[in-house]
Design a protein that fits this description.
With 143 residues, this protein is of the alpha+beta class. It has one helix at residues 2-21, and strands spanning 61-65, 71-73, 76-79, 82-86, 92-96, 110-113, 117-126, 132-142.
């Protein structure tokens, strides 16, 4: 029986050595697990992100009257410069001097007020599409 016991022990020892020698998991990392699809369930769809949209400002016109002198004795000669423009095309200027005289289509005219009084000069700017802006200035003419 001792022979059988030794043999068994030798066989058991060599099997154990064989098992240890052929065991990859003992010396190597196990391969990564593959994700297994679950039938009937899809992964959630990615959330759509709204792209910012560029907002275009509406076309417009802007004008400002910039006279240096707004008060003087009759006859008062005044220069009426204006600055302005339109975002959507060429601009045209028109002045109403407020004294009943003819309107003038200039950007920066000179006008003579003959009689004493307070006058409101108005400049209007416009583009070909009909957009407008205006500015007013009070002119005081003394005797």
């Amino acid at each position: 029986m001792s022979r059988t016991g030794n043999l068994l022990m030798v066989v058991a020892a060599s099997t154990a050595a064989l098992l240890v020698a052929s065991c990859r998991s003992c010396t190597e990392a196990p391969p990564p697990r593959r994700a297994r699809p679950i039938e009937g369930k899809l992964p959630p769809a990615p959330r759509a992100v709204a792209e910012p949209t560029a907002t275009q400002e509406p076309a417009r016109c802007a004008v400002i009257a910039m006279p240096e002198l707004i008060e003087g004795g009759a006859p008062f000669r005044v220069e009426l410069p204006a600055e302005g423009g339109c975002t959507d095309g060429p601009a045209s200027f028109e002045w109403d001097f407020g004294d009943g005289s003819a309107r003038v289509k200039q950007q920066s005219p000179t006008h003579v007020y003959e009689k004493p009084g307070e006058y409101t000069a108005k400049v209007t700017i416009s583009d070909p599409e009909g957009r407008t802006d205006s500015d007013r200035v009070t002119i005081t003419v003394t005797p």
